[in-house]
Amino acid sequence: MTKKLQSITNKLPPLVALLVVLAIWAAATGFSWVPSFMLPSPGDVFEAFVSDFTLLMRHAAVTLCEAFAGLAIGVLLAFVLAALMNRFAFLYKALYPVLVITQTIPTIAIAPLLVLWLGFGMAPKITLVVITTFFPIAVSLLDGFRSADADAVNLLRSMGAGRLKIFRHVLMPSALGSFFAGLKVSASYAVVGAVVAEWLGGFEGLGVYMTRVQKAYAFDKMFSVILFITLISLLLMWGVTLLRYLAMPWERKEKEKK
Amino acid sequence: MPTSPDAVLRAEHISKSFGDHKVLEDVSVSLQKGELVCLLGISGAGKTTLFNILSGLMKPDSGRVYVNGAETTGQPGKISYMLQKDLLLPFRTVLDNVALPLILRGVPKKEARERAASYFTRFGLAGTEKKYPDKLSGGMRQRAALLRTYLASDGIALLDEPFSALDTITKGAIHEWYLDIMRDIELTTLFITHDVDEAVKLSDRVCILGGSPGHILTEIPVTEPRPRAHDFMLAESFLGYKRKIFEALQL
Predict the structure, then answer these.
(1) How many CB atoms lie within 10 A of CB B73?
(2) Interface of A with B in 133-162 (CB under 8 A)
(3) Cα–Cα dist A219/A212, whole Å
(4) Does residue B131 lie in a domain region?
(5) Are B40 and B206 in contact (CB under 8 A)?
(6) Which of A16, A160, B52, B211 is most buried by its number of CB atoms within 10 A?
(7) What is the pLDDT, as a whole number, of residue A258?
(8) Which candidate in A151, A153, A158, A167 is best for mutational testing of the B interface (most B CBs within 10 A)?
(9) Beta bridge partners of B157
């Protein structure tokens, strides 16, 4: 019972903060502090969301498709590269700075180039998602591999385990926690990355829809898309948390103890 | 020290330096089947280096290591070992941790688990099979690590200060238990320690490693018959052995 109470009190502060923001927003529009064509009221945004629901879903399906494909490729690439970089020190030394540099390139600047090179279909969007999601995962995996206990690695060597077995039984499980932390960041980047890529050219997707309603000055619809994207990102991040819970049962038990 | 050719573990004339610093000089040790030998050393005498060389994780500059007559110098995978740190993998259940050496050797998972589980009662671990290591007490974790070492071994184990992180009472209890289980499982053991009481209490022979670079100063047989009485530590003979060791250490 007290546990339940505690979980309610824990969730209370962010809920209150959220409600306060909503109240200020409602007040600003309701008392016309801000003209309604510049800032739609929460009610208008909700209405726009409901009336455009089917359209939003259709566009969301495309965006999610791009985000998932990009994320999957990003994870795969990150995994292969991190494993190789962990195995070969010279690769680590050579590629780590390159990895960091790829992160400092503003994605918004290369998105038009990608469209130029890859056309208006899904390819440039997926590529952009790969570029943005790949880095956090690769770095978190590398850190994870390096966090593995060197004595445990030696112990497995003494048991006659080769590199592959050591990777499978020690390095990989040791890196899982760090991997999921990276995946969580990347999951939210994935949706935003896909939307940004869609802004710059395409026929379908939430980003395309967003630019259309923006050009029509339909700010209520614009806001409803923004909120919808936020919601999708939150859901994805929650999905990663769930995945982590399922993949790391030893962590789970620890929480039960507390 | 003479090394006999029928020893199950034999190290001959091991020397090792790191840069200009010579750590081990002409160290020879040999263990007969079923023997428990304590390697008692002053800190910095190269205990851990010798340990790494014996387990094959490190190559000596000169000298050779033989297991059951075959040379294994610099080849890991022939002798199992256990450290003060239990090194139970936090992401595996206790049973899966213990079964790991069998799985690594290619035993099917189910069979490996069954074989490992069959020892749990004897090692005082019944009921911990599905738990994760962080739920176990220090003594239990060391027993689980010892069982894993036993399953990894082909009858030879190196124990590097396995009980030194435990408190005195737990340590005493685990010594009693260890002496008991040693009679059941025939394990040839080289036991590294800096605890004189522990060395006398457990071993058939105490080899004293000292000096810089480290070499075997002397070897003291502990002829007290087994099973040893619980009050062996309070006996006159116990003090006699201790005195000899202190003399050898020039304390």
Answers:
(1) 19
(2) 149, 151-152, 154-161
(3) 11
(4) no
(5) yes
(6) B52
(7) 40
(8) A158
(9) B80, B189
Distance of alpha carbon B62 from alpha carbon B25, whole angstroms: 9
Report whether pLDDT(A2) > 80.
no
Q: How does pLDDT run across B200-217, given as a tens digit for each residue?
A: 989 999 999 888 788 888
- Is residue B218 within 8 A of residue B208, CB to CB? The reply is yes
Query: Quick check: helix, strand or coil at residue B97?
Result: helix
SS (H, E, C) A42-81: HHHHHHHHHHCHHHHHHHHHHHHHHHHHHHHHHHHHHHHH
CA distance B181 to B163: 15
Q: What parts of chain B have a pLDDT lower than 70?
A: 1-5, 251
pLDDT of amino acid B4:
61
ipTM: 0.83
Look at chain B and report how many structural domains it folds into. 1
Say what the pLDDT of residue B118 is: 93
Query: What confidence score (pLDDT) does residue B175 get?
Result: 87
Reference A187, options A229, A223, A144; nearest CA is A229
Q: A224-241, pLDDT tens digit by residue?
A: 999 999 999 999 999 999
Residue A110: the pLDDT is 84
Note whether A163 contacts B: Cβ–Cβ < 8 A. Answer: no
CB contact, 8 Å: A248 with chain B?
yes
> pTM, whole model, 2 decimals?
0.82
Query: What are the extents of the domains in chain A?
Result: 1-39, 41-257
In a domain, B17, yes or no: yes
| Enclosing domain of residue B180 | 9-79+153-248
Determine the distance in angstroms separating the CA of B238 from the nearest CA of chain A, rounded to an integer: 35
Residue of A nearest to B150 (CA): A159
- Residue B225 belongs to a domain with what CATH number? 3.40.50.300
**pLDDT, position A242:** 95
Query: Does B200 map to a domain?
Result: yes
> Is the Cα torsion angle B244, B245, B247, B251 positive or negative in sign?
negative
- What pLDDT digit, counting tens, does each position of A95-131 carry? 988 888 888 888 788 888 888 898 888 899 999 999 8
Nearest one of B184, B192, B185, B189 to B204, comparing CA atoms: B189
Tokens of A243: 């995945």
Question: Cβ–Cβ of B55/A158 closer than 8 Å?
Answer: yes
Phi then psi for B234, rounded to 5 degrees?
-100, 0
| Minimal-distance CA residue of chain B relative to A257 | B135
| pLDDT tens profile A20-71 | 999 998 898 888 888 877 888 888 889 989 998 999 999 999 999 999 999 9
Inspect the interface and report whether the beta carbons of B104 and A161 lie closer than 8 Å.
Answer: yes
Which of A147, A155, A171, A248 should we substitute to test contact with B (largest number of B Cβ atoms within 10 Å)?
Answer: A155
Instruction: Give, in words, the CATH class of A41-257.
Output: mainly alpha
Residue carrying the six token digits 């840069």:
B19
Q: Residue A25 and residue A47: Cα distance in Å, rounded? A: 16
